[in-house]
Amino acid sequence: CIPMEEERVGKDQLIFSRSFATPVTTAADMGQVMSVYAQQASARLAKHGLQAKVLTAFAGTSHFNQDNISYPSVCVPLPMPTADPVLLHKAANSLCERIYEGVKYVRAGIMVTDLRPTGNQSPLELFENPHEERGIGQLMESVSKKYGRGSIGLGSAGLRGGPDWSMKRDMLSPRYTTHWDELLLVKAS
């Protein structure tokens, strides 16, 4: 007899991955991508009350371009479980060393694994994260709550204006049930 599996209580991993509107061809642009994605992963971790111990960053070229195939990835074990945007940003940017200049990357992402509830650290993890001590992550979270998503960011991810690589949103479905400004208006005459 096979025992019935209980429902899982928490998440095993969080993935933030997108395709680009225009290909990313430089390590500097990929650094901006990784910075944005790391901060969004940090916000998701905080929202779910989790911390990650491992971060994997990856990128990829188009499946249709058989001439320049490249799928770099890097798996970075973090020194302690964290949701700190500064630490995640630094870990994600280690992917930039593996980016080949001139290759057209059309997709990238970040995956955080070995998730643990916030505040559930083992006694062996004695080292404090200096950024968490200063409250940079909490400051960024409070500014984002007050002024909206994208109002603050680390490095080039904090720049205003949409980058060329940002996701295409031309074919986005209407969100009638969740956004008042997209609600259909019907006029009876």
From TrEMBL:
Every DUF4113 domain range: 138-186
DNA polymerase Y-family little finger domain: residues covered: 14-121
GO MF assignments: damaged DNA binding
GO terms classed as biological process: DNA repair
Top-rank taxon, per record: Bacteria
Protein name per Swiss-Prot or TrEMBL: DNA polymerase V subunit UmuC
Source organism of the structure: Arthrobacter psychrochitiniphilus
